[in-house]
Amino acid sequence: MNVDIFGYFAAILTTAAFLPQLIKTLKTKKADDVSLTTLIMFIIGVLSWIIYGYKISSAPILIANLITLVLNLLILIFKIYFSKKTKINKTYFF
């Protein structure tokens, strides 16, 4: 049995786990419930996994974490964008 199957399976599940948060953030145009500190720490961890996956030539680790990095960077960008937009709207209306 090829052990990489478990790596790819784990990669699919852990990467896909961020899609609901990204979709929710886009639909609601809010990411207040997402911790900025946790998100930044996670992104740094994912970058470390990417370096590790590259160094050991592990395609499952590399691919999964590259996709996860993109998804989490999008969540971070939208969190910052939507929080600034909310602050601007509150300034004009309250």
Question: Topology, pairings included?
Answer:
Elements: H1 4-16, H2 19-28, H3 36-55, H4 59-93
Helix pairs in contact: 1-4, 2-4, 3-4
What does this protein structure show overall?
Helices cover 83% and strands 0% of the residues. It contains 4 helices and no strands. The chain starts with a helix and ends with a helix. The relative contact order is 0.16. The mean pLDDT is 87. α1 (4-16) packs parallel to α4 (59-93) and α2 runs parallel beside α4 (59-93). It is mostly helical and 94 residues long. The protein has a single domain, classed as Monooxygenase (Up-down Bundle), CATH 1.20.1280.290. The chain has helices at 4-16, 19-28, 36-55, 59-93.
Salient structural properties:
4 helices, Monooxygenase, 94 residues, mainly alpha
Number of domains: 1
Give the overall pLDDT as a whole number.
87
Strand composition percent: under 5%
CATH architecture: Up-down Bundle
Distance between the termini: 63 Å
- What is the number of beta strands? 0
Approximate helicity band: over 70%
**Principal-axes shape call:** elongated
- What does the largest sheet look like? none
Order of helices and strands: HHHH
For the record, the CATH class is Mainly Alpha
**What is the radius of gyration computed over CA atoms, rounded to a whole number of angstroms?**
16 Å
Structural class: mainly alpha
The number of helices is 4
CATH topology: Monooxygenase
Unreliable residue stretches: none
